[in-house]
Amino acid sequence: MARPMGPVRLRRTNPVTVIIGIVLCTFIIYFLSNTGSSSRPTTSKGRSINSKPVPKSNLAHIRRDVQRFNLNHVTITKDPIANREAVLILTPMARFYQDYWDNLLKLSYPHELITLGFIIPKNKEGNAATTALQAQIAKTQKSSANKFRRVIIERQDFDPPLASQDESERHKMENQKVRRAAMSKARNSLLFTTLGPDTSWVLWLDGDIVETPPTLIQDLASHDKPIIVPNCYQRYKDDAGKPAERAYDFNSWQDSETAQELASKMAPDDLLLEGYEKLPTYRTLMAYMELDDKEQGAEVPLDGVGGTALLVRADVHRDGAMFPPFPFYHLIETEGFAKMAKRLGWQATGLPNYKVYHYNE
Amino acid sequence: MMSRHHSGAYANGYPRPNTFEISPHRFQPRASTPATRRRRKLLVRVAIAIVVAGLFACFVWPGTASFVSIFSLGLLSSDTDGLLDTVRYYDLSNVQGTARGWEREERILLCVPLRDAEPHLQMMFSHLRNLTYPHHLIDLAFLVSDSKDRTLDVLIERLEDQQADEDPKQPYGEISIIEKDFGQKVNQDVESRHGFAAQASRRKLMAQARNWLLSATLRPYHSWVYWRDVDVETAPFTILEDLMRHNKDIIVPNVWRPLPDWLGGEQPYDLNSWQESETALTLADTLDEDAVIVEGYAEYATWRPHLAYLRDPYGDPDMEMEIDGVGGVSILAKAKVFRSGCHFPAFSFEKHAETEGFGKMAKRMGYSVVGLPHYVIWHLYEPSVDDIKHMEEMEKERVAKEAEEKEKAEKEKKIKEQFSDTNSQWEKDKTEIQNLAKEESKKEAKAGGDAEKPDSKNTKKESSGTKDEAKKAES
Predict the structure, then answer these.
(1) Beta bridge pairs of residue B109
(2) In chain A, which residue's Cα lies nearest the Cα of B78?
(3) pLDDT tens, A164-215?
(4) What chain B residue is nearest to A142 in terms of C-alpha separation?
(5) The domain at B103-384 falls in which architecture?
(6) Is the pTM of this model over 0.95?
(7) Count of A–B CB contacts within 8 Å?
(8) Residue ranges of region Disordered (chain A) (predicted)?
(9) Residues A231, A352 contacting (CB under 8 angstroms)
């Protein structure tokens, strides 16, 4: 009523309001940055991590140089360290085991030559594994000593066929075809997007391999074989509570006449799987081939290989040897891989006395 | 009663000069700002200083990078951080490939295998310049293998020009050149390339080369892979979008080639895109494990319907046809096909190798494989040895015919010249005769007849006649 004519004067702000505002702003900023860095690593960290490779329109007019790679100069030899050969370690991962990571860090092959590749399914379990894995990666890559050359994490673009990863459910024969086809696709997706022009060796190491000799890569490479697979065992406590070990991976075998006869009678889409009582194949399994003399370097030729730990020359994969996600000569995944490699002229070799250990569920 | 004109009031609206009243109407500048307001100003200044200092600190000390990204709305990313340089995260479900990839900024890997391809590079780069798909979304991958000419040097030169082009829309994304020699014995010339005996081993080597190129360059951020041969002569600029619109896992256009008129003008070129037939399946069963069925040779009569032969020049270019074997001249495939392991078999896969085996394997893995019978791109015409022989003969004939025609033309010309000569001669003679006749008549009129003149006229005429004959004999 009594306001004089002229510009409207603002009401005087109470200093308390200003203080509350500042405090609130601080809180909002704090929580924004906090959630961004720790509680939701899969999304926000991913975003900051892949902000470079994922192209956006603001990258439209960047002029990139022509890159040349001479694959004639990529060596694959018995002595990979002396020749500075790049190794790609590929791991399809469903669950994260701390022992796996610790064992990986213990590998004595120069870490600056190692690229790690992971592929993880897109489900709840996979999210948990990704979070745990990323925490460990961040820890390792920040330290300059043990740092790996590159780490690539990929999430699958298809749903895993089984909800459960339980031991009993996983090994049911009916589920095997679907499960291993999905596994093959995951392996292939990881392989063909991470295999670089300078890679010499590819080491397949499952996420549940918790113990290997630290010189694993050098030892396997020293045999100078295109495909080489150690024997995969599992440590457990026997009834008396004493530590013991047993064979775990039955996918490394030498073919038998019985198996070939069985295969010849099968429909083209049928699978001849190993380790099931319903279908005895009488193949010679590497798991039971352990020799008494304990000679670590003993070699045996193989017709099927397991993928728990597997060293492959990059050439073999480049020629096209992949993990068939369909029955290929009645074989699938790693066993099919050995067959396909053979069709391309590469022979698989096994080391029955050289052991790696699987996690005990 | 109160007086209306008392001294303190303002009767005419103006205060009286000698009044002691304080008038509210008079402007009075403040002596100084009030103390409270001065204090507030100071506080604001201090607060601004603190905020500026805080922001500055964010830039100076690492570890507070997340604060920076909030204030800068993510424009200043923390890529410079050493940790993040070595770690990458990709969600493959973001790169599935859709019908309108250019709108969703989907990246394409364009693969070109090259061998002794120097003469074709210029043509290929003119195609690259014209592609309408956003260039920065296309990564180029070249494999140069076993080349004896300057393929590599010319390729690098051309690529550098392309990347340095004035037009900001011209440069491509990542460009990789892979060099690898497989020690191929088979020659690349047309005869040995298309001979039947060489096919199986040649196709296996080609497959190997394609696999090496793809496995070295495919990355987790690619949504599509496009295979293109260097010797495509004519193709629509919009080919990538045209093929992508169909949203199929694997899609190929029809490939024809132009021919010289004497060979019929045009011809189906790529016979590797076909539908499977019962005959071929039965044939496959009789062959041994390593045999490779190749299309277009009398040795293997498969009776398959070929994409190439189904072309109707006026047909709907969007018409689709399910196929089982695929030709390699121009293949657009979703990257997920290759990611899941489908590749060009360098061995006999269901009795096929390379691109045909690729089609077979993709079918086996449940992908859609489609050809467009009425959407045509044109392959370069390289004449075969027979064609060249035939063309040489035709050239000879043509030269002979030309020479003959030239001769004929010359003859005609000469004849014409001679005719015009005689005409002028006649005219000349005529006037001379007339003159002579006049003179004579004058002479006659003056001094009577002289018999010599008409004789000279006759001899002149005879001499011109002999001249004509001589000329004819000459020609």
Answers:
(1) B139, B225
(2) A48
(3) 556 566 566 667 788 889 999 999 999 999 998 999 999 999 999 999 999 9
(4) B83
(5) Alpha-Beta Complex (3.90)
(6) no
(7) 204
(8) 36-55
(9) yes
Partner-chain contact B89 A319, CB within 8 Å:
no
Chain B: residue nearest A73 by CA?
Answer: B180
| Cα A182 to Cα A323: distance, rounded to the nearest angstrom | 10
Q: What mean pLDDT is reported for chain B?
A: 81
Of B88, B156, B348, the CB nearest to A50: B88
Question: What domains can you pick out in chain A, each with its CATH number?
Answer: 74-358 (3.90.550.10)
Mean pLDDT of A293-314: 87
Cα–Cα dist A359/A338, whole Å: 24
Tell me which residues of chain A, numbers 188 to 247, contact chain B at a CB-CB cutoff of 8 Å.
Answer: 188-189, 191-197
Which segments of chain A are extended strands (E)?
Answer: 66-70, 86-92, 114-120, 150-155, 199-205, 209-211, 227-237, 243-247, 253-254, 284-285, 300-302, 309-313, 348-358
Is residue B268 within 8 A of residue B155, CB to CB? The reply is no
The tens digit of pLDDT for each residue in A320-355 reads 999 999 999 989 989 999 999 999 999 999 998 898
Gyration radius of chain A over CA positions: 26
Please tell me the predicted confidence (pLDDT) of residue A173: 66
Whether residues B84 and A49 touch (CB distance < 8 A) is answered with yes
Count Cβ atoms below 10 Å from residue A267 Cβ, excluding itself: 7
Give the residue with greater pLDDT, B333 vs A59: B333
Per-residue pLDDT at A316 exceeds 90: yes
Closest partner residue to A152 among B70, B88, B93, by Cβ?
B88
State whether the Cα torsion B409-B410-B413-B414 is positive or negative: negative
134-163 in chain A: CB under 8 A from chain B: 134, 137-138, 141-142, 147-157
Percent of chain A past pLDDT 90, that is, above it, reads 42
What is the tens place of the pLDDT at every residue in A206-248?
Answer: 999 999 999 999 999 999 999 999 999 898 888 888 888 888 8
Contacts of A58 in chain B (CB under 8 A): none
pLDDT at position B460, please? 46
Work out the minimum CA distance from B389 to partner chain A, whole angstroms. Answer: 40
Best CA proximity match to A55, nearest among B263, B221, B317, B254 = B221
pLDDT-derived band at A152 (thresholds 50, 70, 90) equals very high
B139 or B422, which is more confident: B139
d(CA A338, CA A324): 10
CA-nearest of A188, A212, A214 to A202 is A188
The residues pairing with A304 across neighbouring beta strands, listed in sequence order, are A253
Q: For residue A221, give the amino acid letter.
A: A
Interface contact flag, B47 A72, Cβ < 8 Å: no
Q: How far is residue A235's CA from residue A246's CA, in Å, rounded to a whole number?
A: 7
The values of phi and psi at residue A40, to 5°, are: -130, 70
Q: Which helix (H) or strand (E) holds A325?
A: none
Chain B residues in contact with A15 by the CB 8 A cut-off are 40, 43
Question: B383 to chain A nearest CA, in Å?
Answer: 33
Secondary structure element (H or E) that encloses residue B445, with its range? helix B385-447
Question: What Rg, from alpha-carbon coordinates, does chain B have?
Answer: 46
The pLDDT assigned to B341 comes to 92
Q: Write the pLDDT tens digit of every residue in B244-260.
A: 999 999 999 999 988 88
Q: What is the pLDDT of residue B113?
A: 93
- The larger pLDDT score, comparing residue A105 to residue A39, is at A105
**DSSP code per residue over B95-108:** -S--TTTTTTT-EE
Site of tokens 């001499």? B463
pLDDT, residue B78, reads 44
B-chain residue closest to A198, CA distance: B216
- CB-nearest partner of A188 from B95, B177, B340: B340
Write out the residue limits of the CATH 3.90.550.10 domain(s) in chain B. Answer: 103-384
